[in-house]
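Homework help board

Subject: predicted structure for assignment chain

Our instructor gave us this sequence and asked us to write out the predicted structure in token form, then describe one feature. I got the tokens but I'm not sure how to describe them. Can anyone check?
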Amino acid sequence: MTGLRERKKLDTRRALSDAALKLAFENGLESVTREAIAELAGVSLRTFNNYFTGKYEALAYRQTERLRRSISVLRERPADEPLWTSITEAVIAPLEEDFRDATGEENKIPSRTELAEVRKLLMRPEIRDAANKELFDEWMAVIAQRTGTDPDRDIYPRLVSAVVRAVGDAATELYVRADPPVPITTLIRSGFAEVAAGLPAPVKTTRRKK
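My token output:
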């Protein structure tokens, strides 16, 4: 169980990240500075510097936090469970946990419009690079461990890690565009199910001419 001290640290990180995102949504990325983030979050600049190295790390935090939790869940999944089942449940678990905890401002889930803006931000190289390298290596390590492969010599764990990221990207893109709305967890499960099935080509349907 998370102690009170650690919970307060987590809430502070989330508040700073949310402040950074709010500034970016309302005034553009150029308006996001360490000083502005700290002021909006109601903390000192020193406090900001204790949690993040810069604005890009703060902007990417919500996404990277969920990915880290996914890696932790994956490590705990049964060793004899099919790999793609384990990965699916690991990726879904932090999202479902956040949905259950979304009762306060610090834990709220972004709306589809907000997520669309988050998506644009996360595609910027400086923000993507702030998180992806370390997390990609962590994904490779746990996948290599589960599959008995070597990430320095075998391509398999690298391919799986890249596919995990691709499924998340594709699901998010569909989520922000779907009309009527479709739950993000449904899209992620569907994406991994397709991968687990070997990505079979969709069956083409032909319309009869009248």
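Reply (TA_rk): Your tokens look well-formed. For the description, you could write something like this. The domain at 60-196 is CATH 1.10.357.10 (Tetracycline Repressor; domain 2). That's the kind of observation they're looking for.
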